[in-house]
Amino acid sequence: MSPKIAFLGAGNMAAAMVAGLLKNGHPPAEIACYTASGQSAQRLAASTGIAQAHSIPALLDGAELLVIAFKPQHLATRDPALVEATAGKLIVSVMVGKTLAQLRAAFPAARAWVRAMPNTPGRIGAGVTAWAALAPLDAADRAHIEALLAPLGRVLEVAEPQINDIAAVSGSGPAFFFEFAAALSEAAQAAGFPEKLAQELVVETLLGSAKLLAQSGEPPEALRNQVTSPNGTTLAGLHQMEAGGLRQIIRQTVLAAQARGLEIARDT
């Protein structure tokens, strides 16, 4: 029997997780969401068929685990009703930056605390999710974590200090990837392609390249070199990337995301 899963928050990450659960056959009647305003929860419930709870006690009634999916800055102003309502529950946070110690302080009566960092490709079961627990989980709670995260894609258990770093790579990485895709599409249009054809070329090229990287087992530099002929078109483009400092830009991008995660962790 599928456990009841409650979502406190109904934004993009909650929607991606709900989509993954439903795609894997989790009954919509065993998923509920709640937001203080009710607006995003109403939209998520209407688009997925899950339940919209209208109070925190109703959200958590019968739930085995609660997914904290609101913005990290809202943890400090959480509803006081959560302390009592989360007694004995398994808490799973997808908030960036907030530590397991902060979760325990916020929900002191819970039975266990877990941080997870899924990413939006989990919406189609193609994500990667890292997670860490404050203390070793018993078999039942590990099964609940598996039921929650496995439908999203690959699942990795890690030490908590790695969670923030993972957030900067796989958590934020899809946005960086989509930005690159948008830039490549714009470049294709500048080269003379109509928008629709440029978009199709970019999507299929990136999709095929990612599959080749995943299936070949070769490092990306080796695959890059297989495309690159001496004095050819690819080499000309790669020289421009190098001149523009692409790798340094990507490095700075990830480190900026990592640093912001640490700042969020320090905020109260």
From TrEMBL:
The gene is proC. The keyword Cytoplasm applies. Pfam families: F420_oxidored (PF03807), P5CR_dimer (PF14748). Pathway: Amino-acid biosynthesis; L-proline biosynthesis; L-proline from L-glutamate 5-semialdehyde: step 1/1. One of its GO terms (molecular function) is pyrroline-5-carboxylate reductase activity. GO terms for cellular component: cytoplasm. This is Pyrroline-5-carboxylate reductase. Belongs to the pyrroline-5-carboxylate reductase family. It comes from Cephaloticoccus primus. Catalyzes the reduction of 1-pyrroline-5-carboxylate (PCA) to L-proline. NADP(+) binds at residues 8-13, 35, 69-72. Keywords: Amino-acid biosynthesis, Cytoplasm, NADP, Oxidoreductase, Proline biosynthesis. Residues 160-262 form the Pyrroline-5-carboxylate reductase dimerisation domain. One of its GO terms (biological process) is L-proline biosynthetic process.
